[in-house]
Structure formats: C-alpha cells, structure tokens
C-alpha cells in the first residue's frame, strides 16, 4: 500500500507543469508590484473600517462611539463593503500575476525562503477567506459558513494583515527596485498597461453594480446590489422578518406592554400610553453591516424621556434594550450614554407617518443616529436603564 501511494504521488508530481508552461509576456515584477500596492491599500481600508464596525458592535471597555454625525457609520461601512467587493478582481489579477511561482522547484530552500512561503500561504488563504466570506455575508447566504461570520471575519482579518506585513517586509527591496525601474516600452509595456486598465475597469464595474445599495442616486445602475433603497415594506429594505424572528403573535397581541425598569422602579406602558407621550420625528438611516443603507422618517418617543420616567439621567446611564424575540444573537443591545442622551434617538412607533410595519419592528423599535442596523433593536419588549457612573 505504501509503495502504491508513493507511486501515485510521483505520477501526480510528474503532471505538475513547469513554471515555463505559465509564462506570459504580460507578467512582470513591476505589474505584480502595482497590483500588490492596490490590493494592499484596499485591504488596509477594509481592515480599519471592519475593525471599527466590530468594536461598535462588540465594544471593548475603552472604546467610545459618538452619536454624531448621524451618517458616519453609514459611510464607513458602505466604504468597507464597496472596497471589499472591489478587491475581487484585484485579488484575482494579483494571484494570476504570481501563479507560476507556486510551482518553483525546489519548493523550499533555506529557512528564510520557508518563512517567506509560509507567510505567502497564510496571506493567500486569509485573503481568499475574507473576500469569499464577505461576499457571502453581503448576499446573506450563510449555509456554506459553519461558523459565526462576524467572529470569523474579524479574527482572520488580523491574520491577513499580519501576513501582509511580513510579506511586505520581505519583499520591500523588490518593490522599491520594481518601482524605480522604467516601465517597458513596446508591445509588452502596452499589454501590461492594458491589464491594469482592465483590472481597474472591472473593479469600477463591480463598484457601480453594487454601491447603489447605499448611494441612492446610483441605485438604478446597481443591478447586483442585494438591498436597494425604495424596496421592502414602507420603502425600506428588511433583513429579518417578523416571521423569521417568531415574534408575530407577541407583537400583535393587544395586551402588549413595554416594560421600563431602572433604579428600583418598573413601569409598564401600552402602545396607547406610548402614543400619548410627546412625539418627535427624525430622519435617520438604517445602515447595515452588509453595506446597504436607506433613510426613513421615524416618529416616536425620545429615549431620554423614557429614562426620565424612572428617574435616570441619560448622561450617566445606558439602556439595555430587549426584543420580544425569544432567542437570537442580537435580540438584545445596549444603548450607551451618548446615544441615550441624543434628541434623535427614538423608540420609534411610526415610519413615514404610518404605524410601523410588523417587519420593521411593530409595535416599537429603536432608531438611533450613527449606529449599525443590527443594533437598532426591533419589537422592543423591555428597556432596562442602569447607571454607568
């Protein structure tokens, strides 16, 4: 059996093409360098905006996120997803440009070369993981991912950046030399420039075909955008419906009561009680981690007014918001002090002047400025106010 396995491996090795079989006059160190710089910039933007989004959703003790400007998260997350999608053709072109090096023989020669190859393997694997999982998340297709997307995407991002820095440290002399070398003249030079133009055009087409999900004027040309403004009930897209959350009967029950608790007090408020309180209106976007966003005109009760009912000072408090959902990773969220005290933060009862659609969170939902949509809790059943200082 061992002899047969050895013979099989030798036959496979004999079929591996030599590097010369992959030669192309379009490939060059300079082309690879330019593609690498573009991909590195794109990965840097994605890393910074992605870590920011993760910290907003899972804040460490030292992290503070403001409530203004209201569209800041909309911009950073839209940039994150748009840049991530644009890396698809960039990554493909970069891998094509270095593909022959995968078959260099011997595969390892010395510790330095082994370390370089290990960093490249980690970088390629992490980059492919980030791009593929990110596209699946934008499409909300989680079946191929047997892990929690947010955690996996976050931790592999650190691996990708670490491997990128190691790779850059090893290749920096090569990069400098390639950039100093004049671009080749003749057909080869023209062909390589055409490759760069084609890759840039592909990235531009991908961007135009998807960015309309957050830039409304481009919605008409964004034919690949999974969520576009103007779609969904009351003109806003919906990720999770009431049926999927299993909250329909509880949300529509005439006996519904909002429980407001804090500082040793507990108050129950019906929908009629909430309607009788001072009402306020705010035009705020829903900005989701998948990159789409859409602005709605929301009306309801200010959260700071609800905090005052239990004797709290919004400046020194935070509120734990619980949904009528029985289970789910985001059935509960925490509104920190800056958002709790902001006049634009509402327990929304209406959207566009009409009662909330059930899929938008009827009988009541949170809408706060500069906050991910996943934290804008729908079907609110309980608000607990607690002191932070």
What does this structure look like?
With 389 residues, the chain is an alpha+beta fold. It has 2 domains: 2-218, no CATH class; 233-387, Sulfite Oxidase, Chain A, domain 2 (Alpha-Beta Complex), CATH 3.90.420. The protein contains 11 helices and 10 strands. It has helices spanning 2-15, 29-57, 72-98, 111-138, 149-180, 186-210, 242-245, 248-252, 271-276, 303-309, 337-341, and strands at 258-262, 265-269, 280-287, 293-302, 317-323, 332-335, 346-351, 354-355, 365-367, 380-387. The strands form 2 sheets. It has a 5-stranded mixed β-sheet with strand order 2-1-10-5-6. Strands 3, 4, 7, 8 and 9 form a 5-stranded antiparallel β-sheet that branches. Strand 1 and strand 2 (265-269) form a beta hairpin. Helix 2 (29-57) runs antiparallel to helix 3 (72-98) and helix 3 (72-98) packs across helix 4.
Task: Describe the structure concisely for a colleague.
The chain is an alpha+beta fold and 389 residues long. The protein has helices spanning 2-15, 29-57, 72-98, 111-138, 149-180, 186-210, 242-245, 248-252, 271-276, 303-309, 337-341, and strands at residues 258-262, 265-269, 280-287, 293-302, 317-323, 332-335, 346-351, 354-355, 365-367, 380-387.
Keywords:
Sulfite Oxidase, Chain A, domain 2; 11 helices; 47% helix
Query: Biggest sheet: strands side by side, in what order?
Result: 2-1-10-5-6
* Total number of helices: 11
Query: Quick one: overall form?
Result: elongated
Helix share, percent:
40-55%
Q: How are the SSEs placed, and which strands pair?
A:
Layout: H1 2-15, H2 29-57, H3 72-98, H4 111-138, H5 149-180, H6 186-210, H7 242-245, H8 248-252, E1 258-262, E2 265-269, H9 271-276, E3 280-287, E4 293-302, H10 303-309, E5 317-323, E6 332-335, H11 337-341, E7 346-351, E8 354-355, E9 365-367, E10 380-387
Parallel strand pairs: 1-10
Antiparallel strand pairs: 1-2, 3-4, 4-7, 5-6, 5-10, 7-8, 7-9
Helix pairs in contact: 2-3, 2-5, 3-4, 3-6, 4-5
């Amino acid at each position: 059996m061992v002899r047969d396995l050895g013979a099989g491996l030798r036959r496979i090795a004999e079929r591996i093409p030599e590097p010369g079989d992959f030669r192309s006059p379009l490939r060059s160190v300079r082309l690879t360098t330019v593609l690498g710089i573009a991909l590195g910039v794109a990965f840097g933007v994605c890393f910074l905006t992605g870590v920011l989004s993760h910290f907003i959703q899972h804040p460490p003790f030292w992290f503070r996120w403001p409530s203004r400007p209201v569209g800041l998260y909309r911009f950073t997350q839209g940039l994150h997803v748009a840049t991530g999608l644009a890396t698809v053709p960039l990554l493909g072109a970069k891998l094509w440009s270095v593909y022959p090096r995968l078959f260099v023989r011997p595969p390892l020669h010395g510790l330095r070369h082994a370390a370089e190859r290990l960093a490249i393997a980690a970088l390629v694997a992490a980059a492919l993981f980030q791009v593929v999982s990110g596209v699946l998340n934008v499409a909300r297709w989680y079946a191929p991912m047997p892990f929690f997307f947010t955690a996996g995407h976050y931790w592999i991002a650190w691996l990708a950046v670490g491997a990128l820095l190691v790779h850059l440290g090893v290749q920096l002399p090569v990069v400098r030399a390639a950039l100093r070398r004049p671009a080749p003249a003749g057909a080869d030079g023209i062909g390589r420039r055409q490759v760069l133009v084609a890759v840039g055009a592909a990235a531009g087409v991908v961007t135009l075909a998807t960015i309309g999900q957050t830039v409304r004027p481009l919605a008409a040309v964004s034919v690949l955008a999974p969520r576009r403004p103007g779609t969904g009930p009351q003109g806003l897209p919906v990720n999770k419906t009431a049926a999927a959350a299993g909250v329909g009967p509880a949300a529509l029950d005439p006996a519904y009561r909002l429980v407001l608790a804090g500082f040793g007090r507990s108050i129950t408020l019906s929908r009629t009680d909430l309607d009788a309180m001072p009402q306020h209106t705010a035009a705020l976007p829903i900005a989701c981690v998948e990159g789409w966003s859409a602005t709605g005109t929301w009306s309801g009760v200010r959260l700071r007014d609800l905090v005052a009912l239990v004797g709290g000072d919004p400046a020194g408090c935070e509120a734990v918001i619980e949904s009528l959902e029985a289970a789910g990773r985001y059935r509960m969220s925490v509104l920190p002090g800056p958002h709790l005290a902001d006049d634009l933060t509402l327990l929304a009862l209406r959207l566009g002047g009409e009662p909330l659609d059930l899929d938008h969170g009827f009988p009541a939902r949170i809408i706060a400025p500069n906050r991910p949509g996943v934290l804008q809790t729908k079907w609110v059943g309980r608000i607990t106010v607690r002191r932070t200082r």
